[in-house]
Amino acid sequence: MTADKSGDMKTTDRKLDRKLILIVQQKLGNDLRWVLPFAYRDDGETMKETANKALVNSCGNGLESIILGNAPCGYFKYKIPKTADGVKMFFFKACYKGGNVKLSDPSIKDYKWVTHDELSEYMKPKYYKKINQFLFE
């Protein structure tokens, strides 16, 4: 494929024999990190609604997907440095139906469609280890 030859990682027309995973490069504190799209849950919002919101807020309305199930497939918790606060991130699986990513959140600087094997090149080790538990090739 042309995308494989050119190294274009912004298209789903690459590695057609493999499952692709959407990652975004987001400003978190003072750092830019590659993460799965996420959003903070608002009061009264279900976790599945938050998962849908995460995709729309991160990728715009042009990306069509289906969130699988009503319960998360995994979670990651961490402490915020220099505070007593902690954060839990819950993950949902989604299937890509079509459309394109149009970054809409100013804290998101870039995105890529990567294979499972490529994920570890972008993620921090602790984060990658946790999400690798529920991502299957």
Automatic annotation (TrEMBL):
Coiled coil: none annotated. It comes from the Eukaryota. InterPro entries: NUDIX_hydrolase-like_dom_sf (IPR015797), Ribosomal_mL46 (IPR040008), Ribosomal_mL46_NUDIX (IPR033650). This is 39S ribosomal protein L46, mitochondrial. It comes from Tegillarca granosa (Malaysian cockle).
